[in-house]
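A reminder from the course coordinator: this example appears on the midterm review sheet, so study it carefully.

Given structure:
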């Protein structure tokens, strides 16, 4: 292969080894320029004779795994590359090594210390250039620039070669700085720079790498997010410029989030919203008085309209509770089973399934009541009963069921009183004295139930399971029968009262749908003393 060289200097030595050219030129401390003709092409190689002023690294660094990996993987010349070593003498000897591809493009450049250890390494690519600088203490840094000399990334490594800090740039400005635990490689802190705002900061658990806390700023407000040990957020806070709490968010069951809003002057809770975490749709709202107490909180009374979006098939629970709340004695049965503590916690008692010794007591915070948006809306005392029934069915499986989806209002009466419902045939001439007071009753004769209700109102609580459509059943509450008309409340919306003549009522609500076919509707009721 032809080879010619022209140089400005004192002496030179040219070697050829395994198709790789090695040029060792001993020259004074000055500029060198060498021309090499290879494969019919000229390659222009320019190297500077100035030794590096970068801090140097001790010779022990040369034996570490990370440096071997760097030079073996990134800077070891390949067989089809041209290598030139330049030695400079100024009382010491410093070598600069240049590597070119066969097109004359500079691939890398390495500067060495007097003891032969590297002080800096340069890698040149099509899109970015990379500079690695080694320091006396064994640490080293890495800078990556684009072809316009814009800094893209800057990394700093420990003596053992572990990443300690990574800095990213956009338009030569810092966009983020991330700190790592060298022993685990996990993030421990990250700062993100945002235009016209204070930089946001995130903190991580060094043992797991999971985020612990994040602080960001927007429009003069501070947003803080706290995470559990698994990296799932568990609380968000929004503070004003004075550091006063404006909002607090936390997730609850079923993908829902509670959002509390505070009065900036008093610091007390002003309003609570429950919303869907994904869609952000508001599910429920609750206002507070000037002292931060919930206006819509449970209070031991059933004094608000009840509605249900039919997410849960517990119309039998609602109709039983609503029918009891229609009478004075029924209200007492309910109030005996619910109590409110000074802190606002609500306790509900379940007498248990008749014949089984399984009474239960459940206590709920106002927050739990607020977040149970799959249940009824309006009166939180009613929601507290629903929650208690829901838990009881999951734990005890009364009547062979593990959920409150579907049931009989007689079960509501039984679970609140502990008394077994009795089946009665009112048309057979049974008298009121033969029916024990406050005992759940079941009657499958709607005609007799209507007649009996008229004679015992207002001291009777009655709900009726009847056909709602051609293929579904539903539970309703009979409020009163007056002047030949039946006043009926649908248990999923007590604001709507339907009025029927007795004949129309029997015609429209006289049957149930069962797997075996249609059967007469069933009335469940209690004669209250």
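Designed residues:
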């Amino acid at each position: 292969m032809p080879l010619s060289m022209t140089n400005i200097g004192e002496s030179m030595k040219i070697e050829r080894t395994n198709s790789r050219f090695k040029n060792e030129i001993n020259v004074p401390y000055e500029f060198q320029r060498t021309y090499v003709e290879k494969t019919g092409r000229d390659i222009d190689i320019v190297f500077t004779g100035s030794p590096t002023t970068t801090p140097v690294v001790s010779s022990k660094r040369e034996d570490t795994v990370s440096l071997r990996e760097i030079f073996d993987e990134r800077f070891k010349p390949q067989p089809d590359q041209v290598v030139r070593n330049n030695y400079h003498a100024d009382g010491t000897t410093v070598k600069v090594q240049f590597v070119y591809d066969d097109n004359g493009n500079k691939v890398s450049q390495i500067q060495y210390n007097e003891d032969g250890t590297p002080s800096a390494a340069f890698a040149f690519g099509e899109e970015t250039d990379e500079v690695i600088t080694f320091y006396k203490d064994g640490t080293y840094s890495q800078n990556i620039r684009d072809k316009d000399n814009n800094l893209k990334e800057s990394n700093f490594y420990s003596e053992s070669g572990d990443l300690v800090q990574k800095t990213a740039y956009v338009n030569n400005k810092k966009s983020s700085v991330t700190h790592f635990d060298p022993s685990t490689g996990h993030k421990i802190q990250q700062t993100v720079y945002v235009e016209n705002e204070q930089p946001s900061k995130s903190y991580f658990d060094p043992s797991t790498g999971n985020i612990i806390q994040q602080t960001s700023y927007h429009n003069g407000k501070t947003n803080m997010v706290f995470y559990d040990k698994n990296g799932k957020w568990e609380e968000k806070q929004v503070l004003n410029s004075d550091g006063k709490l404006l909002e607090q968010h936390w997730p609850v069951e079923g993908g829902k989030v509670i959002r509390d809003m505070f009065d900036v002057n008093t610091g007390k809770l002003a309003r609570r919203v429950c919303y869907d975490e994904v869609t952000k749709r508001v599910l429920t709202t609750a206002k507070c008085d000037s002292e931060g107490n919930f206006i819509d909180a449970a209070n031991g009374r059933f004094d608000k309209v009840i509605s249900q979006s039919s997410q849960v098939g517990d119309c039998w629970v609602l109709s039983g509770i609503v029918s009891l709340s229609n009478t004075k004695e029924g209200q007492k049965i309910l109030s005996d089973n619910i109590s409110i503590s000074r802190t606002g916690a609500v306790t509900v008692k379940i007498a248990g399934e008749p014949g089984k010794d399984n009474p239960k007591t459940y206590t709920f915070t106002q927050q739990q009541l607020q977040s149970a948006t799959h249940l009824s809306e309006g009166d939180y005392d009613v929601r507290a009963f629903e929650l208690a029934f829901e838990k009881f069915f999951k734990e005890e499986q009364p009547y062979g069921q593990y959920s409150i989806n579907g049931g009989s209002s007689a079960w509501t009466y039984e679970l609140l009183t502990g008394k077994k419902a009795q089946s009665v045939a009112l048309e057979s001439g049974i008298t009121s004295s033969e029916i024990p007071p406050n005992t759940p009753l079941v009657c499958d004769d709607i005609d007799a139930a209507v007649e009996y209700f008229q004679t015992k109102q207002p001291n009777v609580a009655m709900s009726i399971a009847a056909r709602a459509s051609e293929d579904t059943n539903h539970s309703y509450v009979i409020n009163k029968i007056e002047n030949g008309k039946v006043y009926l409340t649908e248990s999923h919306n007590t604001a709507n009262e339907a009025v029927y003549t007795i004949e129309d009522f029997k015609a429209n609500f006289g049957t149930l749908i069962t797997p075996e076919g249609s059967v007469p509707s069933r009335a469940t009721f209690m004669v209250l003393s």
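The chain has eight helices and 34 strands. The two ends are 118 Å apart (CA to CA).
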